[in-house]
Every structure is written in structure tokens, then in C-alpha cells.
Amino acid sequence: xxxxxIGKEFxxxxxxxxxxxxxxxxxxxxxxxxPLSEKDIQAExxxxxxxxxxxxxxxxxxxxxEILSGVFNGFTTGAPIAMLVANKxxxxxxxxxxxxxxxxxxxxxxxxxxxxxxxxYRGGGRFxxxxxxxxxxxxxxxxxxxxxxxxxxLAYTKAVGKVKMGKSLSPEEIRERRYETAVRxxxxxxxxxxxxxxxxxxxxxxxxxxIIECIALNVPVGVGEPLFDALDADIAKILLAVPAVKxxxxxxxxxxxxxxxxxxxDAYRMRQGKVVTLTNNAGGILGGLSSGMPxxxxxxxxxxxxxxxxxxxxxxxNMEDATIAVKGRHDPCVLPKAVPVVEAALATVLADHMIRAxxxxxxxxxxx
Length: 368
What we know:
alpha+beta, Chorismate synthase, AroC fold, 5-stranded antiparallel beta sheet, 9 helices, 23% strand, globular
């Protein structure tokens, strides 16, 4: 089984490392007849990095996408779609000095052990957040595909550290406002507090984590393939593959453990000829199948492990205790970049499952 691939019908294969020549993706199974161009992909990639230098890494890649195959005369052909983005702003000098000092919170030590020291340690290599560009490219295609079937996916920052968004906003408000702030929070007042918290953490040589919520609208009822390809199981799998994500919950999530059945159950009603539920504690998924209600999923994102504060580690060359203060260009909080990545990841799974369910055909239109 391919370890760097996900999906059965809309199958995504990822390649590349943080400081290698490029990061790229191959999508196998995208239906023929989808209008697609590099401009479509670039529009999504441009959303990944906020234009606010105080809260992001000094490494600013242009992320210019190149489509290598699978698109002809402005439409997908049904053949594998190969795309790549070159790495042009990588600076590996800081990593040579610490290659024997595993950074706390990173995969440096287990990766070195697993691959016998042959792994690319520069910038975290394959384990870097840089590889999320691959999900962005795949998600751009998935979102274009889903939009043809009125399925909309929206992610936003719900919390940064202890600063939490308390205001409840409609999907329309989230769609319109989330990218108006650098932290990708649709509540402008809360966004200011989040940004201030990130700036302070950076000044202190530290970092912050937080929570991202993602909503999928208009997903048809019955999408999913239980038992082990349940819709929520596949969504959780791809989200946990996003570097820094440490927890996933749907609907009420862990709070459901505190509720009684009478409180947690989503009661059914008819509204304008449609079956709906009065609440959505299930987060739009029951028994691994979409329920027809909005899919609501939240991810917990850990603080960026690369910080300038001195931390304890070991020297793997002489197997002695040591300390490390990580230099280089790092995000004091990865949430602003992770919001569109979470959105792309969810869209990728939905596209795969809707094709598997026969809701999206292998050919979208006849060529005339």
C-alpha cells in the first residue's frame, strides 16, 4: 500500500521535502471535463501565507504552481494530474549545526532512527509543514470539482492560545470575513487579540497553538463507506496527517461525553420538504455517513515546536545531554497558514467519497 497516497477514486500522492528542489502532487482519478488552469490552483496557494510579517516565518515562498499533465485545452482529461511548486527560498545553513541535536516537539529523532540517518533533516524534510503545499494543490482541484455540485468548504481560526472566538457567525459571514484578517478569524475584534498574542509569544521566543473549525455545506446524505472507510474516519486520517494537528473532533466532540442521550441526540424535523435536525451535535456524520446537515470538524493545532527559547535535548553523536535554541525562520503560530490547508484536506476527502458514491461521474460533460 502506498504510504504517501490517500484516497481510492480521487487518489492523491505527495512527494518532495522542505529544502528539496520542489514539493508536488499526482492526482489520479479526477473526472474528465473539469475546467482547470494553473490560475485556479494559484488562487488557492496564494491564500496560504498571510501578508503580515509579524505573525509568519521569514521564509516567504512564491509557491508558483506548474501543471505538468492531466489538463488539455483548459479541461481535465481523466489522466493523472501532476503538479509541482519549486522551493526557492530555503536556507539550510542553520540545520547543519543542529543535525545531531533533535529539536523537541519535532520528528527529528524518530525519523533519524526509522531511516537510519539517511532522512533529509533540513527544515524537517518530509515532516515539515512545507509539504502542506501538496494538500493545497490537491484541495484546489477538489474544491473546483465540489463547487460544480454546490458543495462548499469553509475553514477559519476559532482560537489562538487562550484567545477564543465567542461570537457565533453564519456560514455566509465566515465565507466573507475569514480572509480579511491575518489570523483568518472572521471576528475582527477577536482577530486583533489573537494577533497581539502571537506577536507577544514571538517576542518571548515562544509560540502558540490553537483551534481551526471547518464546515462543509450541502454534502448529500449517505456519503461514506463504513466501516473502515467511514467518512469521519477518512476525514480524521487526512487531518491528522497535517503537521502540527494533534486532535480532531466532530460536532459536539469531546463535550458529548458530558451530555445525556436526550441532550446529545439530534432530533429530526421536516422543514420546507427537507429532512433536517434541530441540533447538529453529530457534526453532520452518523455511523460514518453524511447526514445531510453541515459537516463540522475542529482540529487542535499544537504550538510551533521551533522556538528560540533554550530547550533541553541530547547530542546523538556522543549520546550526551545538551541544550538547543532553534535559529532560522519559523512561524510563531502555524494556524494562519493551516486554515486553508484544513479546508483543502476536507475537500479532498469529500471529492473522493462523492466519486465513490456515484454522485460525481467520471466524465462531467460531453465534448462537443
